[in-house]
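Entry type: protein chain
Record version: 2
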Amino acid sequence: MRRRKGQIIGIALLCLAVVGVIVYFERFKLINIVVEGGSHYTEDEIRDFLVKSKADKFTHFFYLKYAVFSSPEPIPYIEKMEFEMIDRNTVKVTVYDKVLIGCVEHMGRYMHFDRDGIVTECTMQPDMGVPVITGISFSKVVMGDKLDIEDDGMFKRILELTLLLKKYEIECDRIHFDIKGDIKLYIDESEVLLGSDGILDYKISALKNILKASGGVNYRYDLRRYTPESGSVTAKPITKDE
């Protein structure tokens, strides 16, 4: 009798556990994935990227999988994603596009690339705040592939420079590299000679203050020999004939 009674209790507990699991999965089924940010994919495409198995269709599993234990597999054009559990049936996904650091003109189009040199966007005009890069040689441009340039270290220089320009809130239209590697910036109608040596952070910081004091006059600024100690900057007004 005791053995039979124990079996009945065991079966009852098992049934309760099964019912509990069923209730849990019904109550915590992932119904809504709210997608914010990002410009390259639709909400449905983001969901398809993330929901790969039946287990991903349950809120806690989905949230813990991506927010705690692992990151999503790399997705073209996306820098990162952040996950927030809103309620038992909803997770919010915030998508951050890869930062575009520059673009090159190719066959009448502007091919934008990210910090890794991956071409991510093709437009008729440069995106706002993205400088056109000139003076670099490339053999081919393929969407989704790395820009094929001779000097791979050039991406590091472009990234350093564009991040500094963003840091000091300077909108640069074009960045030109000459054959010696000297850098020239084009800002509205002004030109800035940076040279190829020295610490760029010091030069761009000084440039911000110089541009503020220009009073709207276009100059050719020479910061090639600038250091914080020397403070040496020459400026020559640019005329319409130049």
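Comment: The chain is about 30% helix and 30% strand.
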